[in-house]
Amino acid sequence: MGQRPNALTPDRSPQHRLGYVIRELREARGLSMRELAGKTFVSHSKVQRWESGDRPPKDRGETERIDQALGAGGFLIELWQEIGQGASEAGHVSDLAAHVSDTSLGLARPLVQAATSDGEGIFVPARLDDGTVVLVALDRRAMLRAGAGIGAAAVAGFPVSAAAAVGSAEDPFGFARSATGNWSGLRLSRPGPDFGVDWQALIPGGRSMLGSQLSLQLHPARIEGGRVIVSLPDQRRVEEFLTRPHRGLLVGAASTDGVSRFFVLDGRAARNRLTRNGGVYEVSAPAAYELDDLTYGILWAVSNYDDALQADDRPLSETRSDLKAYERLSASAVSREAAPGLNSVAHMWLGSDFCARHILRALPELPELPSFWTREQRGEEASAWMIFDHKYPYLRETTKALGGTSTRAFCVPEEVVRSSPRHERILLFLAVALMESLGIHAQFTADPAYESVEGFVVAPDKEAVIANWIRGDGMWHVDVTARSSVVREFTIAARDVDADSITAAPTAAGRLRTLAQYLDLPWSWLIERCGQLARYGSSGLIQSRSRLVSAAGIDAACAYVGSLPADH
């Protein structure tokens, strides 16, 4: 797993432990670095230095402001006081943890539960070396000082997956511990007997996504330049795994300077890359396929959409034909009951496809260059622009029909940003980058008053096209209207966001950089990682199987972001 920026080892020193705890509490509270800086009356760079461990808070007063802003109840002050003194309680807890095989330094969820608990003690389920499961009583402050993340999911009150209950012997590469600690909702289990599968991964769903399942096989790997060489010593086991028609991923585990890193390769792609080195099979993968928030986000979105659409492939096709009669109408509002038996992702696809065709039919008749308004707020919704097979072609066709640049407005309130995990924020960013690559100027408002506005295309003060399939009561609502009240509402909304867009800048790079800041995403890292992935494409990472899913939008967005200046 590649470390996120300013990664820390909390047991390195008291000030690194303090920085680690500040960061984990900040992220758990849904605050960006800039927001914490504002609450504590310091600069953004100073917060970065706190969290990196480079420079702790200068005095008790500054520490008290941080403690109050993060609701730590005095705990951060105690950690600050320990800098330069050492912590006897930390050693005590570490001694206890040494006898528990399920100990890690994954603090995030246990930290938040412990730091915000009203009580002084918490009970943590743990497995001893002999397999016995016990409840360990820990002092909440001592636990946080030690950085002991025993049974993280259980501490946080989440269901404990099999991955959280295995020791180092069953997870020799530390993959399960790393993956489940980094991505909430991901569940891993070891099948028994395994039949060639090391881990079954249950990928979480979303508001409409249903979840997905992946079979994983893990192997040791080494890094040579920009490539990762995965060693496959058991030829028969690998061949059986790769020839099955399931969705399987090969995972290579490598270590760099003591840090575990994991690289993912789609099973079907791996079949074509097998080579023999002496008596051992090997497979080569680009280092760009390292598992991090970018690649996990792509795996999450593609597997969810692909599996759901493939599951309903035939009935979805039949339903689409049955609903074609609505195309003869200028206005329609179709409920999900018109497509009984289809899953929620299939309903999304039908609504999106119908709205796209509705707009393309109405666009040539609008009296002047229109403004667009879209309702996507999160990565789950926005990733459809890159994954649904009709969305990227639709963007290209609308750009061609308009003969130049256009604007597209989004309403993404701060609360939505705070509640979205990083991989979803990255997907939203990439979807907007795809639009900017086609000359579509993205505009953003954080005002929640605009959340209820439907998706529309408006020729200001003259005519409007309504096309909404996101967070609506049915599969879609479409209309073409010159009704003054409706046109006025849409015109005002579009002008308001145009005048006060929080991402306003004269260039696409400027707008995207400002958006990255708003979404609390590291700009240089985005450019570097997207550029790396664009050189190889996403299909080697995960291949779609549904004919309604395409990787073209993902690859185009990554290529565009990778071409932007990092020092803009």
Protein topology:
Elements: H1 14-28, H2 33-40, H3 44-52, H4 60-70, H5 75-82, H6 88-97, H7 108-116, E1 121-127, E2 133-139, H8 140-146, H9 152-155, H10 175-182, E3 187-189, E4 199-203, E5 212-224, E6 227-232, H11 235-243, E7 248-256, E8 259-266, H12 267-271, E9 274-277, E10 280-286, H13 293-311, H14 313-322, E11 332-334, H15 344-362, E12 371-373, H16 379-382, H17 384-387, H18 391-402, E13 406-411, H19 414-419, H20 422-437, E14 440-445, E15 456-459, E16 463-468, E17 476-481, H21 484-500, H22 508-518, H23 523-536, H24 552-562
Parallel strand pairs: 5-7, 12-13, 13-14
Antiparallel strand pairs: 1-2, 3-4, 4-5, 5-6, 6-10, 7-8, 9-10, 11-17, 12-15, 15-16, 16-17
Helix pairs in contact: 1-3, 1-5, 1-7, 2-3, 4-5, 6-8, 7-8, 13-20, 15-18, 20-22, 20-24, 23-24
What this model shows, in words?
With 568 residues, this protein is an alpha+beta fold. 43% of the residues lie in helices and 18% in strands. The strands form three sheets. Strands 3, 4, 5, 6, 7, 8, 9 and 10 form an eight-stranded mixed β-sheet that branches. Helix 2 crosses helix 3 (44-52) and helix 7 runs antiparallel to helix 8. It is globular.
Please work out how many helical segments DSSP would assign: 24
Rounded radius of gyration (Å): 25 Å
Strand percentage lies at 15-25%
**Looking at the structure, what is the overall shape?**
globular
Derived structural class:
alpha+beta
Helix content: 40-55%
For the biggest sheet, the summary is: 8 strands, mixed
* Number of E-state strands: 17
Distance between the termini: 28 Å
Mean pLDDT value: 84
Provide the low-confidence segments as ranges: 1-6, 86-125, 133-165
